[in-house]
Amino acid sequence: MFKNYSDIMTACRDIGKFTISVAVAQDEDVLNAVKVANDNELANAILVGDECKIKPILEKIQFGNAEIIHEPDEQSAAKRAVSLIRDKQADVLMKGLINSSDFMRAVLDSNTGLKKWSLLSHLAVYEIPGQRKLFFMTDGGLNINPDLNDKKGILLNAIDALERMGIDNPKVAILAANEKVNSKMQSTIDAESLVEMRERGEIPTGIIEGPIALDVAISRKAAEHKGIKSYISEDVDLFMVHNIDAGNLLGKTLMYYANAKMAGLVLGAVCPIVLTSRAETSEGKLNSIAMANLMSRTSCSVNHL
Questions:
Q1: What is the value of pTM for the model shown?
Q2: What is the helix, strand, coil percentage profile of the chain, to 5?
Q3: Could you list the residue range(s) of the whole structural domain that residue 52 is in?
Q4: Which residue, among 268, 300, 305, 303, has the nearest Cα to 119 in the 3D structure?
Q5: 64: burial class by Cβ within 10 Å (0-12, 13-18, 19+)?
Q6: How far is residue 21's CA from residue 24's CA, in Å, rounded to a whole number?
Q7: 70-110 per-position pLDDT tens digit
Q8: pLDDT tens for residues 41-81?
Q9: Are residues 172 and 258 part of one domain?
């Protein structure tokens, strides 16, 4: 169990250095995060982008030992950064100062990209003040309105990620408005179906409950008040939302009302992908790098069926 990002950083130091391939690296927040990762013996970096723009930033932040590959064209830089992963010269891919859709185009290229499973998905991680452990959530950042088969893939990706990070047999809450299956609420129907998939072994690991409302998932008192018997209430490792709207709203509520710190990764590729907003702070980017380190250096524990 990780209480905070500091715990993740400590776990990373026990693993040792890895190499980050940064696509369109001429971004000060990205380079600051990479520098801190380097200074803390977490990572080396290969910076792909416009050398004329990268070098002044490196001088400003006093980061002098990073390798630069000069590629001023953004799309070409993204493809080159991806190729470093395919050629096993780097372990983790990171988005720099490039639009997410252009970055993902290079990742998803059918001939030269990095897609491994049937779909890619997003895992967000929040450190919430006063909470005893990190809050993992999927998928509030990539898949817009997933169907049941997509949700199965999203869940497999996320369980794999948590187990790679050392959270065995994670407790999973498939969120909905309430705990009763309602024929007019697809989220409840899909939640029940995912639980049944776990019972049949189609999802190999995890303690999965759903549909389950957020209050029951986070509060044992709420569960008792509603007369609901739950094995995961107040101890959930992973919260799964039914679409990107729900995830976006929940995530931003945590950040802006609860002062949560966020990190995020794209899952389902041959390596972890650090994809945060261009407006994300250096600290948020560093936390994402640390999680990617844990994932990239451990073996896969969940097979996609």
A1: 0.90
A2: 40, 20, 40
A3: 1-116+269-305
A4: 268
A5: exposed
A6: 10
A7: 999 999 999 999 999 999 999 999 999 998 889 999 999 98
A8: 888 999 999 999 999 999 999 998 789 999 999 999 999 99
A9: yes
